[in-house]
Amino acid sequence: MKRFNLLLLAPTMLLAACSSVSDREQAATSGGGYTTPFPGADTGTTAGAGGVDRSDLSNLSPQQQLAQIGDRIFFGSDQHEVSPEAASTLDQQAQWMRTYPAVTLTIEGHCDERGTREYNLALGQRRADSVRRYLIAAGIDANRLETISFGKERPAVVGSTADVWQQNRRAVSVVN
Question: Is the pTM of this model over 0.85?
């Protein structure tokens, strides 16, 4: 079983290693607000806006496809409402979900390390619920969307700086 998992992991790592600097720079300059919290982040835009050509997604797994179009959005400090910049990424997620009607998602709410565990679990849930409400309003069946909050328990980046905190204030869509 471990060998099978390694065989699945190898192509994913290879794809991640193959992204070019110019693609990252282009993505960083094409987005704004909280959908691009740090230089080099993928903004999840489509080909027409300087992002991913959807025809190149056919050979990827559903989670890899979602990551290419944008599987996460970012929030301001103590915020849970979807920003206009984040809405662009969620619109692309909704369009992708309409293309694949059998796909279901779990939306994970995350927070930075500041605040109590209880506060961050509640804030993370509000963030996940905001994303869910947005996708439902965009026409996605509510039965295809689950939410969970991890609060500050699963940081994307470890550290105690403003840049790190910004990267950890997020909602991530994960294919079930």
Answer: no
